[in-house]
Design goal:
The complex is a heterodimer of chains A (284) and B (282). Chain A is mostly helical. Helix content of chain B is 74%, strand content 1%. In chain B, helix 9 packs antiparallel against helix 12. Classes of the chains: A mainly alpha (284), B mainly alpha (282).
């Protein structure tokens, strides 16, 4: 029955729908295709058809010190942001699920705000704070900005995981004499492995890509997006395409890795939708 | 089962951190919006509504805000027009390839926002890919100048960036529609069009509201796409804030505009939440 119905339906959709679908995919992938193609173009970032296919831009890129410094800075910022966001986001999820405290509603809303709020607002308000405290802008201020703004990603993911968690395991652990600390590390965290890894990957990616908050908190050292931003204003070469292509390939590897992990965890179909969980911020 | 100590241990650190690095900065921004700048370029910590009355008085501020909202509205409409049918096709006719197609919608999200905006710049420029292609096939003699440095370029780029954000909640809503409702509608003699408009679409409205909110709110405060692709006619409200915090050096006025944006976004979120609840059947 099920099979027959779904087979009958496949022939039912109007022709324009498949057209539309193909067109939207083309629209989504056109810039990415152009980006990758022109990273091999000897003649610069524009111009049709591409001429003199070459690997020169990749050679330039690998010899380009400032870009790699920026990559290292971004990696440092992203890792530190993951640490802060998990360090505060995971307890926040536990608190929201298990404790009552004054200001809980405000706290819940506040944590979620930076992800949906224009980055400029979070960036500028932190800039004012650091300015008043006399803190010099540096990578550290960016770390604080990213870490704080991305707490919500960890909190929403882990909160969703907690709601599916069977508390009996933790209860058993406590009954059998383990203390809260041991129970947390040996029962709670292993059960939340997938949401925590998912959150970490997303926080890492969002931080690597973040520019609106960093824009206002930057000191002397650039993150990669800010380095790229600076170069875009000076005139553009396919070197930018080359570095973007390489980062895209790394992202693809991360997606495949994450997808496999989720499928094994039997949560396959929703892999990648963490961003929506975080944006919708269902913490009640 | 959780002791007071446990609850305190998981509550206090995030509470203190969020109070220090989110609440305090937002409150500070609010305070700043009542302060002013002296002729000697120092911040005067006396309280007045001067900045807000300036915002109401000077045309360029609220006109730019309106333009930003109009750009965001267009981005929202186009993202929904692109995202909804895509979600519908994947959810109902995706078949075995559903998961793969779904991942294909997500993957562009992993490409840096800045890089995608930059890619559109290389496509739309006067000696960019599109214009040289058009000349190559003799469709045009001269480059089309309106493509880049225009609101069009900003709307196109932001639509590209936020279509997946509109798609995702719509897809989730469609996936949650019980398929037997659809079958029942067919069995009872409804045409595919009737089934769509009377069953599927109403049940997907919460997803549409969520998707529209994401697209609108996320594009409203953007300042990088306008800087990169907008030209003078594509300036958005955040660009004014950026200049007030930079060369124009008037942090208090910039803070007042930011706070208005914050209010606007928070009230939009509030409304869309109410609306979503109203339309949800669960």
């Amino acid at each position: 029955m099920e099979l027959r119905v779904s087979k009958a339906k496949v022939s039912e959709y109007p022709a324009w729908l498949i057209f539309h679908t193909v067109a939207v995919f083309a629209f989504l992938y056109l810039p990415i295709a152009v980006l990758i193609l022109y990273s091999f173009n000897g003649e610069g970032v524009g111009g049709f058809p591409p001429h003199h296919l070459t690997l020169d831009w990749y050679r330039t890129l690998f010899a380009d010190g400032p870009i790699w410094d920026a990559v290292l800075n971004s990696l440092y910022v992203a890792l530190a942001a993951v640490a802060i966001a998990l360090g505060f986001g995971v307890p926040a999820a536990l608190a929201l699920e298990r404790a009552q405290f004054p200001g809980k509603t405000i706290f819940r809303r506040l944590v979620l705000l930076p992800l949906i709020l224009p980055g400029i607002i979070t960036g500028l308000s932190l800039l004012m704070l650091f300015n008043i405290l006399g803190v010099k802008l540096s990578l550290l201020t960016i770390v604080l900005g990213h870490g704080t703004a991305l707490i919500s990603v960890a909190t929403t993911e882990v909160f969703a995981g907690l709601q599916k968690l069977d508390r009996a395991q933790e209860e058993a652990s406590l009954d059998l004499g383990a203390n809260y600390w041991q129970t947390f590390w040996r029962v709670t965290v292993p059960n939340l492995k997938l949401p925590i890894i998912g959150a970490a990957l997303l926080i890492f990616t969002l931080s690597m890509d973040e520019i609106a908050v960093s824009f206002f908190l930057i000191g002397r050292d650039n993150t990669l997006p800010l380095e790229i931003w600076g170069r875009l204003r000076r005139g553009i070469t396919p070197e930018i395409n080359a570095v973007s292509t390489i980062i895209f390939l790394f992202s693809l590897v991360a997606i495949v890795f994450w997808y496999r992990l989720r499928v094994r965890g039997e949560a396959g179909a929703e892999a990648g939708a963490e961003i929506v969980t975080a944006l919708e911020g269902d913490l009640a | 089962m959780f002791s007071r100590a446990y609850k305190a241990a998981v509550t206090l650190p995030p509470l203190v951190w969020v109070a220090a690095f989110l609440l305090t900065p937002y409150l500070l921004m609010f305070s700043y919006s009542f302060w002013s700048v002296s002729p000697a370029q120092t911040i005067v910590h006396s309280w007045s509504l001067g900045n807000y009355s300036e915002l109401a008085r000077v045309d360029v501020y609220w006109q730019t805000l309106l333009r930003s909202m109009w750009i965001a509205a267009r981005v929202t409409i186009f993202s929904l027009l692109l995202g909804y049918p895509l979600a519908y096709f994947l959810s109902f006719y995706g078949g075995k390839k559903k998961d793969l197609l779904y991942q294909l919608v997500i993957i562009p999200l992993w490409v840096s926002y800045l890089v995608r905006a930059y890619a559109w710049k290389t496509i739309l420029g006067s000696d960019g890919v599109l214009n040289t292609l058009l000349q190559y096939v003799h469709a045009t003699k001269h480059p089309l100048e309106f493509l880049l440095y225009s609101p069009f370029a900003v709307v196109l780029t932001l639509t590209h960036i936020y279509t997946p954000f509109a798609f995702l909640p719509i897809y989730a809503a469609l996936e949650h529609i019980p398929r037997n409702l659809v079958e029942a509608s067919h069995d009872l003699g409804a045409s595919p069009g009737q089934t769509f408009w009377k069953i599927i679409f109403p049940l997907s409205i919460p997803g549409v509201i969520a998707g529209a909110t994401f697209a609108f709110v996320l594009s409203l405060g953007d300042f990088l796409a306008p800087l990169l692709l907008g030209g003078p006619s594509g300036i958005m409200i955040s660009n004014i804030v950026v200049s007030l915090f930079g060369a124009a050096y008037n942090w208090p006025l910039g803070a007042a505009i930011s706070f208005c944006m914050l209010l606007l976004v928070v009230s939009l979120l509030f409304f869309s939440e109410r609306l979503e609840k109203k339309w949800s059947y669960a």
